[in-house]
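To the team - flavin-adenine dinucleotide complex, inputs and output below.
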Amino acid sequence: MAEHTRSKQLVSIFQQALKALAGKRNDWWPSSFLTTGRPTLRLPSVGIVIALASIVIGWWAFAGATGLDDDSRQTFDARPALFAGAVSVMAMTWSHLLSTRLRPLEYLFGGLDHMYRWHRWSGALAVATVFLHTQIVDDVKGIPGASRSIAKAAEELAGIAETFLYILVIASFIRWVPYRWWRHTHKLMYPAYVISCVHFYTAEKPFGNGEAWGRFYSTAMIIGIAAGAYRLVWRDMIKRGRPYTVTSIDRGSRYLDLTLSPVGTPIKHQAGQFAFIKLVKSGLTEPHPFTIASGPISNNLRFVMRTDGDWTGRVNKRLAIGDEVIVEGAFGRSHPIPRNAEAPVLWVAGGVGITPFLASIDVLSEDPRPVPPRLFYSVSSREEAIGLDELRRAHKRGLIQLHLHVTSDGSRLSPNDVIGEFGDGGLVNAHVVMCGPHGLLRSVSQAARDCGASTIHVEEFDIRSGIAPDLTQEIDDVIDEVTSRLQARKENQRVTQ
Ligand SMILES: Cc1cc2nc3c(=O)[nH]c(=O)nc-3n(C[C@H](O)[C@H](O)[C@H](O)COP(=O)(O)OP(=O)(O)OC[C@H]3O[C@@H](n4cnc5c(N)ncnc54)[C@H](O)[C@@H]3O)c2cc1C
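Output:
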């Protein structure tokens, strides 16, 4: 009987695990597709053009490359295989460069959030092309990059690195692995990249390492290797950011509203930018990105964070006035307030997505616009509305036009609210910025397009992106359950002894 109950329990645990892994249908769509629905047509940034050109140009480097088919002993055109390998190395080079968070790159790529997007896409391109390379490459005839034995050893190592790369990229795209573990595994991309570079350098190719093409690729690989070392050693281990102390904490129902004062020189920021913050407290030192919810006029920084996550939940429990916080930033190039003072402005915020607009209201109170931005703010209940008093004050002063939608009061924000307000053509040439949950933004962005909006700026509160459900909470529950059972067992043993 006991065995029957136990096997029933096991089946139920197995079913629950499968259900958690499967998640909901929406979990399997990349978040960017969910957010905007139809992609907005925009001119590619200068950075993208440079990156693509540096990758594509390699096609001409491998003209005339030949290989010897191992089975038929006939020569074949090795250009596609070698080009695929070179694309993979160059894509990884850009991926590492984009992870440095260097400010000049923000100008080239249009902000750190865009840099992270391209970092992910170049990682995906690297994996796809390394797969192609290994499927079609054979005994290439050309100029050796090193002695045969060194080249062979590098090739074997590259085979192992390739397997690692597949696992690491899958772990990045499938969000089952909690972020706090994933960010450590992600660092292993660097050794895999260095091995790929050594393989490229030592392998036989149609050009020598000292010739023009050889120098081109060697320079790119040196830049990529230096970029990876800069990120992993300097940025992650040595550079500290600026120290601040917590001077006020307001605990809301599901959020934390805090103010930080600088200990030394404050960071410089603009409305709409974000910063990475980490606490100088054991277990809370992991850096997390948050939008700065205060304007640039004050040296103090305000952050509002939802507290239902793993790290944010712990911060909510343990954060106290006087705690030291390290702030790194500011990043991002999104501007909720456009330069053109005449352009109509539409802001749409859901829940904690109000933060970039709170910072913008600080700016507007110093420098009001002739046409106030219309802010549609959607919250599930009144208790969850962040900064409601200041939003109302800004509305009264004519700085913004606030449209508050509280779902629990029966006034859920719908596309018709936006269409009713602006009508056909009402958003032509408008500056539209949205920040909030995917479902809401998807429906409202469609409505904005129906009113003539051509470009919609979406603030994504997600750096990792990817597909599949995030299992952080479920995994934490399992860890808690196992830990408490082990403790109970230990306690039992102690009592019986
Ligand atoms: C540019 C930007 C601005 C943001 N602004 C705000 C804001 O103003 N207010 C707010 O409440 N939230 C904001 N977020 C989201 C916030 O960073 C995450 O909710 C928070 O890091 C979740 O941490 P957690 O461990 O508590 O949650 P978890 O439940 O453990 O994780 C939830 C998800 O958050 C992401 N995440 C977790 N840890 C990190 C990390 N160290 N770095 C980056 N992402 C991580 C992952 O995608 C993960 O799947 C912003 C995110 C970005 C990228």
